[in-house]
Amino acid sequence: MSYYPSVGLSLISGGLLTLYSIGLSVVLPAQATPLEAQTVQFEQRTESVPLSLAITDVVQLVVENNTEVKNAYLDRIAQRQDLAVAEDKFNPNLTPRILLNARRGSTGPIITQSEGLDIGASLNTQLPIGTEITLDWRTVRRLERQFASTTPLDQRALNHQVELQLRQPLLRRSGVAVNQASVERARLTNRVQILQVKSTLIDRVTDSILRYRTLFQRQQQLEIAQLTLANSRRRLEVTEALIEAGKLPPVERIQGAADVANQELSVLNAKNALDEARLDLLNLLELDQDLAIAAQAPTLQDQPILEAEQLVSIALENNPTYLQAQLTQKIANYTLIEAADDRRWDLDLEADYNFQPSNLVETRSDLTLGLTLSKTWGDLQPEQRFQQSQVNVTKAENTLGQIYSSLNIDLNNLIREIQLTWKEVQQSRSRTQLVAEQLAAEEEKLSLGLDNTSLTDIINFQNQLAQAQQNELGVLIEYLNALTQLDQSLGITLEKWNLNLEIE
Question: What domains can be seen in the chain, in order of their start residue?
Answer without folding.
Answer: 51-90+175-345+381-497 (1.20.1600.10)
